[in-house]
Prior knowledge:
Blueprint: H1 2-5, H2 9-23, H3 35-42, H4 46-58, E1 62-65, E2 69-72, E3 77-79, H5 88-94, E4 99-110, H6 113-119, E5 126-136, E6 139-149, H7 166-172, E7 179-188, H8 191-197, E8 204-213, E9 219-228, E10 232-234
Helix pairs in contact: 2-4, 3-4
Amino acid sequence: MNHINKMPRHLTIQQDLLKKIQSGVYSQGQLIPKECELTEIYQVSRPTVRQAIQQLVNDGYLERRKRRGTIVKQQKISQEFTHIIESYDSEMNRKGLHPKTKVLTFKLDKANADIANNLQINEYEDVYKLVRLRYAESKPVVLVTTYLPAKLLPNFINNDFTQEKLYSVLQKMDFPILQIRRKLEVLKADETTGDLLDIEAGDPIFYFHSIAFTNDRIPIEYSISKYRGDINSFVFELNHAS
């Protein structure tokens, strides 16, 4: 009877690893032990360990990373901002995820041709450049570079955007965001973006160009957002034309 009920070793290892992933022993984004360590832990051959790991990769629980090892795969965050005007913090809080913002750059700059065109201002006009790295829990999710016309926003530089929400500040300054136009591309992360978002250079990123309009359809914000491809998905809502 024991022979009939005996489970193949790779399935036993697979189930044990899955239990450790689901219980948080190996948390999302964390490296699991190397194959050579797992052969010692489970007292089996490397092909047996490799078979167990491959099945968990196939099932979406693990992911192999070049030069790093095998990590517990992140669960995707479903982003609904594509059809709702809502702050990043509000959306993350609504999903039960703790948001955090790190401000990498906040300064006065000069508009290049692309920025000027999108904000409908003259080239070389003063703009505020705000670069934020935004987290859900401890994971970097999106790198956002935002440009705003300085002539419309006196004293804007005094805001602390690690704490303040951009759209709340604009609302207080009588520039409510009433409409947003977004364009989506999928690109490969360069080395700098990869380092900031904790992904490999060459990994896919969702690349959004957004223009936010206030009263009288004045463009008040132009943002370039780079979302990690591995932990983000996007919800688009389409309505039948009347």
